[in-house]
Amino acid sequence: MAGEEKLFYTIGEVAQIVDVKPYVLRYWETEFRKLNPQKSVTGQRAYRKRDVRMALTIKRLLYGEKYTIAGAVKKLDELEEKDALDPMSGEGTVPEPTHSKAPIPVPGREENFPPIPREKVAEMKTLITSTRVILKKYGLN
Fold this sequence. Notes:
It is a single chain. By secondary structure, the chain is an all-alpha fold. The protein has a single domain (11-113), classed as Orthogonal Bundle (Multidrug-efflux Transporter Regulator, Chain: A, Domain 2), CATH 1.10.1660. Helix content is 48%, strand content 3%. The protein contains five helices and two strands. It has a two-stranded antiparallel ribbon with strand order 1-2. Helix 3 (49-64) packs across helix 4. The two termini are 31 Å apart.
């Protein structure tokens, strides 16, 4: 749905945003400790917006600025110390996947986050309640 914000992105969505193959992202996770997506119970990666920004920054350093991996790791540390981890060199937002209509807000800039409609909150509560019932039924809580 247009205007709907996501908290997490799949590896396929992030690969599309960053314009690299998923195996490249998996490799970067082994080389760059700062790129550390959460993993679900089933082991699927769940990238947050900051992970997407980190992947974009890594791509810019490796492909755009031609850093080696070791050099990019050092540069990421420097950028983080200066609080300057901006993948777009001054632009304010992270690009969106081509199949999505909603822009990805930049973390730390709350004005980019629209309020969540009450219907969505009610729907989320129902899903959480249903999930808890299923987990309890199978003794996974």
